[in-house]
Automatic annotation (TrEMBL):
EC number: 2.7.7.80
Gene: ubaA
Gene Ontology CC terms, in alphabetical order: cytosol
Name of the protein this chain belongs to: Molybdopterin-synthase adenylyltransferase
Cross-referenced Pfam families: ThiF
THIF-type NAD/FAD binding fold domain: residues covered: 14-248
Quaternary structure (record): Homodimer. Forms a stable heterotetrameric complex of 2 MoeB and 2 MoaD during adenylation of MoaD.
Physiological role: Catalyzes the adenylation by ATP of the carboxyl group of the C-terminal glycine of sulfur carrier protein MoaD.
GO molecular function: ATP binding; molybdopterin-synthase adenylyltransferase activity; sulfotransferase activity; thiosulfate-cyanide sulfurtransferase activity; ubiquitin-like modifier activating enzyme activity
Catalyses which reaction(s): [molybdopterin-synthase sulfur-carrier protein]-C-terminal Gly-Gly + ATP + H(+) = [molybdopterin-synthase sulfur-carrier protein]-C-terminal Gly-Gly-AMP + diphosphate
SUPFAM superfamilies: Activating enzymes of the ubiquitin-like proteins
Amino acid sequence: MTEVILGTEEIERYARHIVLRGVGGPGQQKLKAARVLVVGAGGLGAPLLQYLAAAGVGEIGVIDDDVVSLSNLQRQVLHGTQDVGRPKVDSAAAAIARLNPHVLVRRHQTRLSAENARELVAAYGVVADGSDNFATRYVVSDACFHERRPLVTAAVGAFDGSLTTLRPYESSVTGEPNPTYRCLFPEPPPEGVAPSCAEIGVLGALTGILGSMMALEVVREIVGFGESLIGRLVLFDALDMRFETVRYRWDPANPLNGEKAVAS
């Protein structure tokens, strides 16, 4: 592996990481060498991308097929009024360049699908899913399982959010396989149970909280400090300002690494 060297300007830029126990110079070098794919440059993706870029992640892929609309700006703080009508991947790349010129941004202006997911995921070391629908979440999580990539995934409702990390291609210390996304959510909810933010609204700052937490978990996956969220789901209730963490386990019936799973 080629040695990653931090320049003088980078050492000053990342000084607060470099003196931080648990990150330090070696951790910052890992961040610079990292390649992260972010699915969605919207409410969750906006703060996530900002903090990954500020942290010094060397290469960030952004996948989104949408354009910036005026109604996005209440929460998608990566974009500005001048970006309305512009592809989100272009707006995101420009914002990241202003924030940190040391970060390489790869733009994927397309919709992630079962046909292209594995190829896209395989090109990166860590994946963070900030998409807004269950169909995409299943596609991303399945691709990450098959390509053996850690996945940080989050979702928000009107006043609530959730976050977890997945490494289902590995096993726990007990020898049991790590859970998949399909262990947590075996099937998508019935139509109408999980309406979109366009239907019910969403608190702008809520996406900032969950997106920032996603960035923290991605950095944790890269650097390796603290305890991962594997097998743990963080729930946040903004109405009562309450966090709760629930544990979940491998489901032997899940189709990816369950007892009757078929290799792919």
